[in-house]
Each structure stands twice: as C-alpha cells, then as structure tokens.
Design brief:
By secondary structure, the protein is α+β, with helices and mostly antiparallel strands. It has three helices and three strands. Helix 1 runs antiparallel to helix 2.
C-alpha cells in the first residue's frame, strides 16, 4: 500500500526501474507497480496504468532514458508509435503511417 503523499511516477531505488501509481486500481486502492523493461512500460501505457498525455510522455521518456543508461534490456519496437490511447489520431504523423478514416478520429 502506498502512503500519502505519493508520486504518480518516480525512479525506483537505485534507478533499477520506474515506479508508477497504477491508475487502473484507483480509487479503491493506491498501488505502485515497478516497470523494469520496455515491455512493462509499453503494457502500462496501453492498459492505461498511466493516464493523461503528460504522464504517458514522461513514462515513455523515462523508459527511453532507462534504455540509454543500460537499465532497460529490451529496445522499443515500432508499436510504441501506436500504443497510446490517442495514437490513432496522431499516429499518421510518423513516417509510413496514414490518417485514420475511422469515425470519431
């Protein structure tokens, strides 16, 4: 259980990973989840364990920083460009992607 005050995201002790507040568990519980590789980070973004554009961006940036510093073992894949909840609207800006023709996008 997380004690107040809490942070939505921070480096784990020794920078061995990223600790997030699992927002899928709110408001019933304050649960921290440690992300130790790029697959965990991608899963946290896709499953909305982290929510909101700023926090999603910070999570991805910290994941890339961990990779560059040798803390993460798996390099990001092309799915990172389409893994966020609003990526269908913005993904076309990346090379090789086209605008979505789906209703509501």
């Amino acid at each position: 259980m997380v004690e107040l005050p809490f942070e939505q995201i921070r480096w784990a002790d020794g920078k061995t990973g990223i600790v997030i507040l699992d927002q899928t568990r709110l408001p019933e519980a304050l649960v921290e989840k440690t992300l130790v590789d790029v697959d965990h980070i991608e899963e946290a973004i896709v499953s909305l364990r982290v929510r909101g554009a700023p926090l999603i961006g910070i999570t991805a940036a910290m994941g890339l920083a961990a990779l560059v510093n040798g803390l993460a073992s798996t390099p990001p894949t092309s799915t990172w460009f389409g893994s966020g909840p609003s990526s269908g609207r913005a993904g076309w800006r990346w090379p090789g992607r086209r605008p979505s023709t789906s209703p509501g996008r």
